[in-house]
Amino acid sequence: MKVAILAGGAGTRLAEETDVRPKPMVEIGGMPILWHIMMHYYHYGHREFAIALGYKGEYIKRWFADYCSLNGSMTLHVQTGGVKRHDTSAPPWSVDLVETGQTTLTGGRIKRLIAWMGGGPFMLTWGDGLSDVNLHKLLAFHKSHGKLATMTAVRPPARYGHIEFDGDRVVEFTEKPQTAEGWINGAFFVLEPGVDDYIDGDDVMFEHAPLQRLAADGQLMAFRHESFWQCMDTLREKHILQKIWDSGQAPWKMWSER
């Protein structure tokens, strides 16, 4: 099953980083968050990707070109210009880098990517969020209900510490837990090609009318994920992810080092 990733937005709330590169190229642990997302999918056996480009899309193209050509050892035949690569550690991915417009909204980008999905169901996520969601269980859930769309529903991390009282006495304090109530769209979708009928064009936010119409028609199901999920909308959230990575206990890092 192919994986679609939206990587075309401007990331204005992360302007300190995105003045020079698109948000999915902001690095965690020396590698773009986009790479971390793809490694998560690869851990579950997914090797084919289609990435929707927009803002500074050329940066993503250059990064993948360099990643392919510079990974591992190589022998250069200077006179002929020939290159022989050895012992590459790059994963065996096939990556479609698809121009979807500078100002196209999320629904429009998805609509343009559907033509690259091979006519079958596909996975979709945003290029700025990490999770330890079990993709095998997500896919099995999607297949079990037969609807057009599955959304991964998450409980977002609380921004501040949580206090529980007995009168004025603090009986429990938890530093920045996940919220105990309320579910939000955590991306990590599984979609059938029929969602195309719910997206009218480039100027449509997938999170608005398409998802609302899918829900109204009984075609949107939620896979509830209770474990780790964190988006990267701000510099503060980037620092949170970097701190987690530096701890050596990043929940989304399921793959083994070579």
From TrEMBL:
EC top class named in words: transferase
Gene Ontology process terms (BP): O antigen biosynthetic process
InterPro entries documented for this protein: G1P_cyt_trans, G1P_cyt_trans-like, NTP_transferase_dom, Nucleotide-diphossugar_trans
Pfam families assigned: NTP_transferase
Name of the featured protein: Glucose-1-phosphate cytidylyltransferase
The organism's place on the tree of life at top rank: Bacteria
Domain Nucleotidyl transferase: 4-199
Primary gene name: rfbF
An example Gene Ontology molecular-function term: glucose-1-phosphate cytidylyltransferase activity
Keyword field: Nucleotidyltransferase, Transferase
Entry EC number(s): 2.7.7.33
